[in-house]
């Protein structure tokens, strides 16, 4: 073997050893090989600030927004999880990925409390696409792994993602739950390098989806056709199984929250698939399929209200506060950038609305509010 080739191979081997030792050191320092922590294998953005361009979603003087999750996967303005008073749980309408840090409805609530001298801290644990199936898993795989997390209240912003959700949906899979513990799963739990690469891939994928139109998109509500005629006459048989299963999951969430040492609060969700005009509910002519049945926006209204009524009924039976925000349909087109998600203008409305009701709960005191049960007054 030629001396030059030998020297090149020697240099290559030395560099490979140095890189290998560096990887091993990084894994031991930053990985989870020496400890067990489920946070390392959750499908969450952690310790990241991502820039999003919202110019195709809503009008704004500053369309480039910052979206930040801390090392525990939470959004919000606080130093330590022990400071959190209200933990908000929900899907994308809780997460608000297209709303600037500091301007979410949680931020609006916290700012209003601060204005009256109350340093109440509101944290955001929303996960895009997650339903009550995933909310239940959060307690075992996520919240229990966050040190010093003991919120006074856990607010569940629920309804829309449970409308036609069955168990096993991908968005609710915080981790892989099959019986075989694969190499990939082990790397997901333990490896710092693997999770760094997965985070980079997630950021790139999110940006790619926006570029090709797979992510959230805007709806021009002024051009939507509206109808006062539903496509269906009855919904009971169509929804019976899902409503019963939804009620079971709500009971589990109440138990989970109380076992966690927190007081549960439920909030129903509005959408722009329907509106109130001259005292009459109208639904969009836009249609979707509920299993094998086609429905329009007005059908959706009647069906989601059945789901909301289950939420209210369970709250009444279990002595839990339910804020029926979906009942207040006095929203405007520019409060939503699509059928489900709020613009900054809409998030301010949500924040101010919830602040007024949460203030009453806080002022009344924990025990007296829970004893009242039922739907919390909307006025």
| CATH T-level topology of the largest domain | Rossmann fold
Number of domains: 2
CATH class of the largest domain: Alpha Beta
Assembly type of the shown chains? Answer: single chain
Helical content stands at: 40-55%
Estimate the strand proportion: 5-15%
Structural class category: alpha/beta
> Averaged pLDDT, please?
84
What is the tally of beta strands?
Answer: 13
Strand order, sheet with most strands: 4-3-5-7-12-13
**H-E string:** HEEEHHEHEHHEHEEEEEHEHHE
- Looking at the overall shape, the CATH architecture of the largest domain is 3-Layer(aba) Sandwich
Largest sheet data: 6 strands, parallel
- Rg of Cα set: 23 Å
What is the CATH superfamily label of the largest domain? SGNH hydrolase
User: Uncertain regions: pLDDT < 50 for 5+ in a row?
Assistant: 176-181, 208-214, 366-374
Helical segment tally? Answer: 10
Describe what this molecule looks like in 3D:
The chain has 379 residues and is an alpha/beta fold. It has 2 domains: 1-30; 35-376, SGNH hydrolase (Rossmann fold, 3-Layer(aba) Sandwich), CATH 3.40.50.1110. It contains 10 helices and 13 strands. The protein has a 6-stranded parallel beta sheet, with helices on both faces. Strand 8 and strand 9 (280-284) form a beta hairpin. Helix 7 (236-259) crosses helix 8 (297-318). The longest helix is centred in the N-terminal third of the chain and has 28 residues, at 3-30. It is globular, with a radius of gyration of 23 Å. The relative contact order is 0.13. Mean pLDDT is 84; it is low at 176-181, 208-214 and 366-374.
């Amino acid at each position: 073997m030629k001396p030059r080739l030998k020297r090149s191979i020697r240099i290559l081997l030395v560099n490979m050893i140095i890189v290998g030792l560096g990887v091993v050191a990084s894994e031991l320092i930053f990985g989870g090989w020496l400890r067990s922590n489920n946070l390392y294998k959750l499908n969450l953005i952690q310790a990241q600030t991502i820039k999003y361009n919202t110019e195709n979603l809503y009008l704004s003087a500053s369309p480039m927004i910052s979206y930040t999750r801390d090392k525990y996967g939470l959004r919000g303005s606080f130093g330590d999880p022990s400071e959190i008073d209200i933990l908000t749980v929900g899907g994308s309408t809780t997460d608000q990925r297209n709303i600037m840090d500091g301007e979410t409805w949680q931020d609006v609530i916290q700012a209003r409390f601060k204005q009256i001298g109350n340093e109440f801290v509101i944290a955001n644990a929303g996960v895009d696409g997650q339903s009550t199936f995933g909310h239940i898993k959060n307690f075992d795989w996520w919240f229990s792994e966050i040190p010093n997390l003991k919120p006074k209240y856990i607010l569940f912003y629920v309804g829309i993602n449970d409308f036609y959700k069955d168990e096993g949906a991908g968005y609710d899979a915080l981790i892989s739950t099959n019986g075989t513990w694969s190499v990939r799963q082990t790397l997901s739990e333990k490896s710092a390098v693997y999770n760094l690469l997965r985070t980079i891939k997630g950021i790139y994928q999110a940006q790619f989806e926006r570029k090709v139109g797979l992510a959230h998109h805007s709806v021009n509500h002024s051009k939507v056709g509206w109808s006062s005629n539903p496509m269906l006459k009855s919904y009971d048989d169509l929804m019976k199984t899902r409503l019963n299963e939804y009620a079971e999951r709500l009971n589990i969430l109440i138990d989970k929250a109380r076992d966690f040492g927190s007081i549960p609060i439920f909030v129903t969700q509005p959408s722009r698939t329907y509106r109130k005009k001259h005292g009459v509910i109208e639904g969009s002519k836009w249609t979707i399929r509920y299993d094998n049945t086609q429905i329009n926006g007005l059908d959706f209204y009647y069906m989601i209200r059945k789901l909301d009524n289950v939420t209210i009924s369970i709250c009444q039976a279990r002595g839990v506060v339910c804020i029926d925000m979906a009942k207040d349909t006095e929203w405007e087109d520019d409060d939503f950038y699509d059928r489900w998600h709020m613009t900054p203008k809409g998030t301010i409305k949500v924040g101010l609305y919830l602040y007024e009701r949460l203030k009453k709960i806080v002022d009344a005191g924990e025990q007296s509010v829970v004893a009242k049960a039922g739907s919390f007054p909307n006025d």
